[in-house]
Write a structure and sequence with these properties.
- This protein has 17 helices and 17 strands.
- By secondary structure, it is an alpha/beta fold.
- It folds into 3 domains: 205 residues, Glycogen Phosphorylase B (Rossmann fold, 3-Layer(aba) Sandwich), CATH 3.40.50; 131 residues, 3-Layer(aba) Sandwich (Rossmann fold), CATH 3.40.50; 101 residues, Orthogonal Bundle (Arc Repressor Mutant, subunit A), CATH 1.10.10.
- The strands form 4 sheets. Strands 5-4-1-6-7-8-9 form a 7-stranded parallel β-sheet, sandwiched between helices. A 6-stranded parallel β-sheet has the order 12-11-10-13-14-15.
- A hairpin with a 2-residue loop joins strand 2 and strand 3.
- Helix 14 packs across helix 16 and helix 14 crosses helix 17.
- The longest helix is centred in the last third of the chain and has 19 residues.
Amino acid sequence: MESSSYTDYNHRLYGRRILHIMSPVRWRSKKFLHHADSNYKVMMKTIKFLPMCHHTILVPEHNEIPDLGDNVTKIPFPYAQSVLSNRGQFHGRKFTNQTDWRAKDYDFVFNHQPELLYNVFNAIFTGRYGMSVEGFNFFHWVDCDKSRVTSSYPVGFYRQLEAINMSYRSYFHSPVSFDYMKSNFTGKTKYTITDVNDEVMKDKVNYFPLGVGDFPESEPFDLGTDKKILLFNHRWNNSTGIDKLVEYTKDLDRDEWLVWITDEQAKKPLAGAPAPSWMHIQSLPSGGNYRYLIENSFATLTLVDNYMTWNLSVQDAVKLKKPSLVFKHDTHKYVLGDDYPLYFENKTQFVDMINKIPEGKEVNWELPPHDETFETNLVGDLIHCLDNSKKKKTTRTKYGIEWLYHILQGNGYKKNLLYNSHRKLYKSNAWEGMRQWVLDKGAKDTPTSDDTFLWIPDENKKAVQKLIDEAGNVDYKGDPLGVSEKDPKYEKNSKMNKFF
């Protein structure tokens, strides 16, 4: 049986099903720019870490996301095209209307917009599903005084605390990110919640440091200049240090230096002033072009001086052995290391640094193994969840023996199992428990199938048959187990079953 390109079906997470809720932040008009979206890249890391699972992604309706493999299903979904709106809007009915709960299962929700975890679970429960589903949050942003757009904007950390409480595990980039959460309780503002329960949090919180991975091949293009390029490869907004960027570079010789901005919104930002006319603004259509630009720049610049949970862009030049000049920040000690040699703390140090670094200098600095740490944390937490979560334990089910019987006949699509056991019942929260029970008894789910498809490995068939025999080869009502029928309306029954 060839059930997946990932062949180790004895892996504890094999065949588990994950629903991904995105947090898309990079757009051009109505089109989602996946190649420029850091939150999307984090989601893709989790998919890469878990090739033994099936991944269902709610993707923006207008996108050019490529095919992601036979263990990934993409479902178009109407995300708000606003960072702020995404924190409060989830079109639950759209999701449930697209989901056939007689065909599909989810073991985990990977939620990249933690404020919405309640909304997501609420939507799932309308399908009479979710009793066994555990949530995993990824905090790309933490609500606190330093991160809010204005002081009058609705306080959101309550929703984030709620999400942590509802989750099995919630991930922050580093301890600095969690400190931002706790800072909500250290100021003069009065809230109905007065503190974070550290004892509970230490069991709920883990970390997802992020590396930049490998770059595509360099794709040359006409830079249009022979000046030394100082590359600002961050979003154009107040939180990325644009005021410092302008202040630190405004007096440089413009015949010698060119400040290049990669965010097109710097021309007409939604808030704040645009980039000065003497800066060059140009985004790049491909990762290969971006690599070429870094390789042919004098240095990249990072000037974040306030709120920051993590930084991917600061690592890009380091990865390519180019200078990455960095304003010193508490978070960067987790990203680059405490003793990274190209930190500066003021304009004088910055100007002195660029004048002393020879053009074309190669920087050899080993980045911490961020992705390896993230993968270890995530895989370990998922296995811990399967082994310890009360939601993942189903000790009894009336229909388990019947399901094992049909699966043993090679009739393991959930839709077909229910055609035999629950033909006239449209929804039931008992079905997910039945799947858990048969998985515990030796069945496997198929990571390359978008719908639940259960099967029995050869080495487990004898033990499964013994369970059926000990039950008298009858269903829970005492009727003999006989013909294993298939739902005549199920489209997959009319296609060749690629798993045999």
